[in-house]
Amino acid sequence: MTYQDARTPGLQDGILHHLTYTIGKDAAHATLHDWRLALSFAVRDRIVDSWFASTRASYEAGAKRVYYLSMEFLIGRLLGDALVNLRLDGEAKAAVEGLGLDFDAVLHDEPDAALGNGGLGRLAACFLESLSTLACPAMGYGIRYEHGLFRQSFDNGRQVEAPETWLQQRHVWEFERPEAAYSIGFGGHVAEQDGRMVWTPAEAVLAEAYDTPVVGWEARWTNTLRLWAARAIDPLDLARFNHGDHVGAAVPEMLARAISRVLYPDDTTEAGKELRLKQEYFFTAASLHDILRRFDSEHGDIRLLPEKVAIQLNDTHPAIAGPELVRLLHDTRGLPFDEAVDIARRTLNYTNHTLLPEALEKWPVPLMARLLPRHMMLIERIDADHAARFPARATHAVADGEVNMGALSFIMANRVNGVSALHTGLMKQTVFADLHALHPGRIVNQTNGVTPRRWLHACNPRLAGIITGTIGEGWIGDLERLAELEPHLGDAGLQQAIAGAKRANKADLADWIGATHGLSVDPDAMFDVQIKRIHEYKRQHLNILEAVALWQAIRANPDAGWTPRIKIFAGKAAPGYVFAKKIIRLVNDVAAVLNADPVTSRYLKVIFLPNYNVTLAERLIPAADLSEQISTAGKEASGTGNMKFALNGALTVGTLDGANVEIRDHVGAENFFLFGMTAEEVVARRAVEGHAGQAIAADPRLAAALAAIHDGAVSPGDPTRYHDITGNLRGPDYFLVCSDFADYWRAQREVDAAYRDAAHWTRMAALNTARSGWFSSDRTIRGYMAEIWGAASLGPRA
Ligand code: 26Q
């Protein structure tokens, strides 16, 4: 079934039409790039009808709209996703091959849109897809960064960053909307005029909209992702130009464009950066103006706002939405202050994604007051009024000369949610304990999810085909139906097919690794994968320490029947995070030594794949046997990679952290390799004086692995290279790598033994797939709709 009617020509005609009339090339001279653009335009044509129909249906229903405000949308490539959701993938492959082209090569020509750092940005992208699949009238708002997350390469094992340039190619999915543009002010002063406060900004930039349609499964519904680009209001300073200053005349344009030039590459706060605060206000203000303009065009009475609009703040990055909305309602529209605050608070909701103290956003009061003077006044008043109503506790948003954006978001939100059960519980007990006591019921949990269209159906066609062959294709739009697989898992043919699909995915990956990185890997070895941002709390160094210990054990006893393993790492470190970059170098150095060892490399190889992104994840996850989810308990808010692996039939070795807890509950403890301290035990352990030293003294393996690294076994020309890492682990070891090492080693040896029983392993892997249906982002979005937004589906089937 394809979405084609009498007016739409066949896809091949569409491709040729766009090649000629949009790209301006004839087939004889077209490059792969031209063909990819032509196919994308032809596919985009098919989305537009669904898009218009959705927009019409939203207006006609007068339904509540959901707005998802996020600094990051890590969307990756869009062509394959669009084809799958339009159910055009088969026709497209035939059409492209009919033109004599390699379909995969065409798909792989698309740049990976990396407008995000990691989990938070990818979650936003999965949510947009699910919002469309569920026919929830919604819109995503963000920034159209010219440069997304940097490209990573290695120079002698060290991370090197280069600018990412996705927009240097034509971005075929977007529609420029010059008519939707708003002036966004900064600085200046505030004065009272006729009893109202009036903010006169010192400077202003233009926010210009670019819309990308987001098509849901089977094109049931299509929402919009609206990204804002910054422009100067006057593109040229004519006075300067006329005085002969031709370069200076372009400076205002350069300064304005700087706001949407580049994504901040840190996934923990880099505090105090003025440009970052400007980015936050820029996109939040533009989005709120747009939301109110749309509201006004549909409804008369602004008091209806909370009934007709739900705004979700993706972390505190858009937290300035609170004061900005109050400013628009009170200063601009003249509502009484208390009513303005009440309306704003009933419209806004806030998702918290981290409890790490360094990632909780705080802005110096003087910076806020200089850049957004009226907002600073409003923040003080909102905070004072809140404190006056709840005098007993210290829950201020403004304290110690800083604005605490988490507290501000909490005070200004109808609902505040965590992203896994454990994380939500910890929010109540730790950072938001006092605010939670004042507002019990405000904090709710919505455990994260991932879209099964991209993360199983599209990225793992072999497994998806087997599932569909067994239970039909209903699972793609209703992932909990994967449970229907379970009664079939005793079938030897099905087991063989599942094992065969994994083996073929691994062979593909092995070929790719050989061709692109020159390392030969045996597809029958266990593929052990840790892919995520590099962070001490995620403990890539625990994984590599175990690799060194295993290497030593194999060397000491090469014929002990070791289970062959390939340890695969990928992930970027924030450019300023020195320790994380050192971990990358360590992994690369360990890889060089181990892979060159003729005795041990039959059993253990290590590779760090550069430039991790959504596309690489789509290649690795279907080929993984083992998923490393080994963060210090209490630190990973949820994780979403963990869900993608389980869904694709990888077993997890993991701690009781984030959504790991819920994954284990769903797939069964016997199908999950648990190790390590609980969040509570972590807190207690940290209080033990000399915990790392004790753990090292008790575990000769750990001591030897640390000593090898310390003594330069993997950095022979430079023996002190890793003294910062070994010093940290032997000393403070805040993330308790040493204290969890012995149990991690134990769990890994259980993994080895389990992998040797291939039939049993396949059964456990298949059970992971069959029992992961709950981790669909469709389930998550249904939860937000019912418990946070009060929004209804407008679709026939959702
Ligand atoms: C803030 C201020 C200044 C500069 C950067 C930042 C910043 C940017 C990105 C702070 C945090 C982030 C990203 C956080 C993030 O990705 N958190 C992850 O969110 C996922 C989705 O909920 C969870 O699954 C992960 O556990 C969590 O780490």
UniProtKB/TrEMBL annotation:
GO terms for molecular function: glycogen phosphorylase activity; pyridoxal phosphate binding. It comes from the Bacteria. It catalyses: [(1->4)-alpha-D-glucosyl](n) + phosphate = [(1->4)-alpha-D-glucosyl](n-1) + alpha-D-glucose 1-phosphate. It is found in: Cytoplasm. Its EC number is 2.4.1.1. SUPFAM superfamilies: UDP-Glycosyltransferase/glycogen phosphorylase. Signal peptide: none annotated. Its cofactor is pyridoxal 5'-phosphate. GO terms for biological process: glycogen catabolic process. Phosphorylase is an important allosteric enzyme in carbohydrate metabolism. Enzymes from different sources differ in their regulatory mechanisms and in their natural substrates. However, all known phosphorylases share catalytic and structural properties. Allosteric enzyme that catalyzes the rate-limiting step in glycogen catabolism, the phosphorolytic cleavage of glycogen to produce glucose-1-phosphate, and plays a central role in maintaining cellular and organismal glucose homeostasis. This is Alpha-1,4 glucan phosphorylase. It comes from Roseicyclus persicicus.
